[in-house]
Amino acid sequence: MTQTFTLTLSCAQRPGIVHAVSSFLFEQNCDIAEHQQFDDTRSDAFFLRTSFVSAEDVDIERLTAEFGSVAAKFGMTFNFNGTDLPRVIVMVSKMGHCLNDLIFRWRAGNLGAELVAVVSNHEVLRPMAEAAGLPFVHVPVTPATKPQAEARLLELVEEFDADLVVLARYMQVLSDDACRALRGRAINIHHSFLPGFKGAKPYHQAFDRGVKQVGATAHYVTPDLDEGPIIEQEVIRIDHSFDPTRLATVGQDAEALALSRAVRWHCENRVLLHGHRTVVFS
């Protein structure tokens, strides 16, 4: 049975990289099924994502070890990924539109991930999670208990063997320590293009300013609040007839779309970090 794997890498730009990769895969009796690359001429950096198939059993650890000499020659940072779907914990508060969308796509088999648990600081969305057959873990958060709550979150990441944490309108700011612990494996959804309307009632602020577009931004979580590397943004055109309620509804649609794409692309190993930016092979 043919299996599909991916190789992602980044390094300084120089001749011979693609030839070295394709030759290595050929020597391993693997066929390239999809190949994308990007040359950042401003920083002389090179990024690559190659999907390959093999009719033989592939040992990822062996493949990684044997590719080491190629990587060393070019100074590559690389990763081979197997066929197992990444395991995802979803964190929520009271708003369920993003969670509902993720559950729908997961059940339909097009999320590219395996949802394994829902964690919340409220009980409101327990019925939605449990109706989907997902464990629901209530972790209350107060200013006094926030360190313990975050410690519990990191414990749950280990308990569920989660590869990714998705903040699907989780209305708590993670501490710098938690952000660092989850670096590169936590995605947040923000209710606007960044920077945007911050604070309470963002759609009321947008209405008062007469905006003509509603957007949402999915980004990696970092200690810099809402300033992490952006993975995806969605925009929907509106006009003067949209009151705050309609704006919020359209905004929720944008949030769900941007977040689901970001989760899928991350889980399909299509997102490579590049400083404060990302390279996304969509």
Supply the helix-strand structural class. alpha/beta
Radius of gyration: 21 Å
Report the uncertain regions: none
Mean pLDDT: 93
H and E string = EHEEHEEHEHEHEHEHEEHEE
Within the largest sheet, what's the order of strands?
7-6-5-8-9-10-11
What amount of the residues lies in strands? 25-35%
Q: What's the main sheet like?
A: 7 strands, mixed
EC number: 3.5.1.10
Function: Catalyzes the hydrolysis of 10-formyltetrahydrofolate (formyl-FH4) to formate and tetrahydrofolate (FH4).
Family: Belongs to the PurU family.
Domain ACT: 6-90
Describe the structure.
Strand 8, helix 6 (176-181) and strand 9 form a beta-alpha-beta unit. The protein contains 8 helices and 13 strands. The strands form 3 sheets. The chain has a 7-stranded mixed beta sheet with strand order 7-6-5-8-9-10-11. With 282 residues, it is an alpha/beta fold. Helix 3 (97-108) packs across helix 8 (244-267) and helix 7 (202-208) packs across helix 8. Catalyzes the hydrolysis of 10-formyltetrahydrofolate (formyl-FH4) to formate and tetrahydrofolate (FH4).
Describe this structure in a few short sentences.
This protein has 282 residues and is an alpha/beta fold. 34% of the residues lie in helices and 30% in strands.
